[in-house]
User: Fold this.
Amino acid sequence: MNTDPLSLVLLDYSNFALRPSEPVEARGEAIDSTRESFEMLSEEGEVVGYIKTWRHDDDYAGFVHFDAQGNILNWNAFDKSNPIDHDLKHFCNELPVSSEG
Assistant:
Protein backbone atom coordinates (compact mmCIF):
# COMPACT_ATOMS: atom_id res chain seq x y z
CA MET A 1 0.00 0.00 0.00
CA ASN A 2 1.26 3.51 -0.78
CA THR A 3 1.05 4.69 2.81
CA ASP A 4 2.43 8.20 2.31
CA PRO A 5 -0.32 9.57 0.03
CA LEU A 6 -2.98 7.59 1.86
CA SER A 7 -1.97 8.96 5.24
CA LEU A 8 -2.68 12.50 4.09
CA VAL A 9 -6.09 11.85 2.58
CA LEU A 10 -7.21 9.84 5.62
CA LEU A 11 -6.27 12.32 8.35
CA ASP A 12 -9.83 13.64 8.41
CA TYR A 13 -11.44 10.22 7.85
CA SER A 14 -9.98 7.97 10.52
CA ASN A 15 -13.36 6.31 11.17
CA PHE A 16 -13.46 4.90 7.62
CA ALA A 17 -11.89 1.68 6.36
CA LEU A 18 -10.26 1.04 3.00
CA ARG A 19 -10.93 -1.86 0.67
CA PRO A 20 -8.66 -2.39 -2.33
CA SER A 21 -10.57 -1.94 -5.58
CA GLU A 22 -10.98 -4.81 -8.02
CA PRO A 23 -7.51 -5.93 -9.10
CA VAL A 24 -6.64 -4.88 -12.63
CA GLU A 25 -5.71 -8.43 -13.59
CA ALA A 26 -9.36 -9.35 -12.99
CA ARG A 27 -10.26 -6.78 -15.66
CA GLY A 28 -7.65 -8.15 -18.07
CA GLU A 29 -5.21 -5.25 -17.63
CA ALA A 30 -1.51 -5.37 -16.79
CA ILE A 31 -0.57 -4.82 -13.14
CA ASP A 32 1.09 -1.46 -12.39
CA SER A 33 2.65 -1.68 -8.91
CA THR A 34 3.09 2.11 -8.81
CA ARG A 35 -0.67 2.73 -8.74
CA GLU A 36 -3.34 1.55 -6.32
CA SER A 37 -7.07 2.17 -5.95
CA PHE A 38 -9.24 1.82 -2.87
CA GLU A 39 -12.89 2.11 -1.90
CA MET A 40 -13.52 4.15 1.23
CA LEU A 41 -16.11 2.42 3.44
CA SER A 42 -18.28 3.80 6.24
CA GLU A 43 -18.66 1.89 9.50
CA GLU A 44 -21.79 0.32 7.97
CA GLY A 45 -19.79 -0.93 4.97
CA GLU A 46 -21.26 1.59 2.51
CA VAL A 47 -18.93 2.93 -0.20
CA VAL A 48 -18.59 6.65 0.51
CA GLY A 49 -15.63 7.44 -1.72
CA TYR A 50 -12.63 6.29 -3.68
CA ILE A 51 -8.90 6.93 -3.45
CA LYS A 52 -6.30 6.49 -6.18
CA THR A 53 -2.60 6.69 -5.33
CA TRP A 54 0.62 6.59 -7.33
CA ARG A 55 4.36 6.50 -6.69
CA HIS A 56 7.25 6.71 -9.16
CA ASP A 57 10.89 5.65 -8.73
CA ASP A 58 12.01 9.27 -8.36
CA ASP A 59 9.81 9.59 -5.22
CA TYR A 60 7.11 11.56 -7.04
CA ALA A 61 3.85 10.42 -5.45
CA GLY A 62 0.31 11.57 -4.87
CA PHE A 63 -3.37 10.82 -4.47
CA VAL A 64 -6.81 11.79 -5.71
CA HIS A 65 -9.79 11.45 -3.35
CA PHE A 66 -13.25 11.11 -4.96
CA ASP A 67 -16.71 11.09 -3.39
CA ALA A 68 -19.12 8.21 -4.13
CA GLN A 69 -20.37 10.02 -7.27
CA GLY A 70 -16.84 10.40 -8.68
CA ASN A 71 -16.38 14.11 -7.91
CA ILE A 72 -12.85 15.10 -6.87
CA LEU A 73 -12.74 16.14 -3.20
CA ASN A 74 -9.00 16.43 -2.69
CA TRP A 75 -5.72 15.75 -4.47
CA ASN A 76 -2.04 16.33 -3.91
CA ALA A 77 1.34 15.42 -5.37
CA PHE A 78 4.68 15.19 -3.58
CA ASP A 79 8.37 14.89 -4.45
CA LYS A 80 11.70 14.73 -2.60
CA SER A 81 11.62 18.47 -1.97
CA ASN A 82 8.24 18.12 -0.23
CA PRO A 83 8.69 15.02 1.98
CA ILE A 84 5.83 13.59 3.99
CA ASP A 85 6.24 13.49 7.76
CA HIS A 86 7.14 10.04 9.10
CA ASP A 87 4.51 10.38 11.86
CA LEU A 88 1.85 10.29 9.15
CA LYS A 89 3.15 6.91 7.99
CA HIS A 90 2.59 5.56 11.50
CA PHE A 91 -0.91 7.08 11.59
CA CYS A 92 -1.85 5.42 8.31
CA ASN A 93 -0.52 2.05 9.43
CA GLU A 94 -2.97 2.20 12.34
CA LEU A 95 -6.01 2.57 10.05
CA PRO A 96 -8.06 -0.52 9.18
CA VAL A 97 -7.79 -1.87 5.65
CA SER A 98 -10.51 -4.30 4.64
CA SER A 99 -10.19 -6.93 1.93
CA GLU A 100 -13.74 -8.18 2.40
CA GLY A 101 -16.46 -7.31 -0.05
